[in-house]
Automatic annotation (TrEMBL):
It holds the Pfam family AhpC-TSA. It comes from Trichococcus flocculiformis. Its EC number is 1.11.1.26. One of its GO terms (molecular function) is NADH-dependent peroxiredoxin activity. GO terms for cellular component: cytosol. It comes from the Bacteria. This is Alkyl hydroperoxide reductase C.
């Protein structure tokens, strides 16, 4: 069942952020745009490349008013150890949420049969509503740069009711106003 257009599940979890353990809840994701990036496990192979790539786009995303959260079924202690020992993960400035109970992964429907989170990326609007979902197979890494255009499109559509962003839309490009006049003409 698709989570698009649905409010995120309520949760509270421990997290690692900038050298400290903190508590994060679903309420923290409201009031701003958020990206929640699930990944299978700490100390693995594809995951650090994805999370480092997300960090490389973090300043741009923050400039758009977006907060980033990574989530795995590891503990916050494991997140700290990984942050302390991996050059790629040591760069991360965003919040790393722990989900050892699997509650968040189940709520976002990304828990696999082995008890690990799938590679799921969720864009959530300031009301806590899921606007975009991407889930990749375990061996296929994600590219964070594409999230920037999706966020910009989501923000544009939110502030311009009645307009939609076509394929490959970039900020400042033409949008569409769905109407009977457009049917069959695109």
């Amino acid at each position: 069942m698709s989570l698009i257009g649905k409010e995120i599940v309520e949760f509270k979890a421990n997290a690692y952020h900038k050298g400290e353990f903190i508590e994060v809840s679903s309420e923290d994701l409201k009031g701003k745009w958020s990206i929640v990036c699930f990944y299978p496990a700490d100390f693995t192979f594809v995951c650090p490349t994805e999370l480092e790539d997300l960090q490389d786009q973090y300043a741009t995303l923050q400039g758009l008013g977006v907060e980033v959260y990574s989530v795995s079924t590891d503990t916050h202690f494991t997140h700290k150890a990984w942050h302390d020992h991996s050059p790629a993960i040591g760069k991360i400035e965003y919040i790393m949420i722990a989900d050892p109970s699997h509650a968040i992964s189940v709520g976002f429907d990304v828990l696999d049969d082995e008890g690990l989170a799938q590679r799921g990326t969720f864009i959530i609007d300031p009301d806590g509503i899921v606007q975009a979902v991407e889930i990749n197979a375990d061996g296929i890494g994600r590219d964070a740069i594409g999230l920037i255009d999706k966020i910009r499109a989501g923000q544009y559509v939110r502030t311009h009711p009645g307009e939609v962003c076509p394929a490959k839309w970039k900020e400042g490009a033409e949008t569409l106003k769905p109407s009977l006049d457009l049917v069959g003409k695109i």
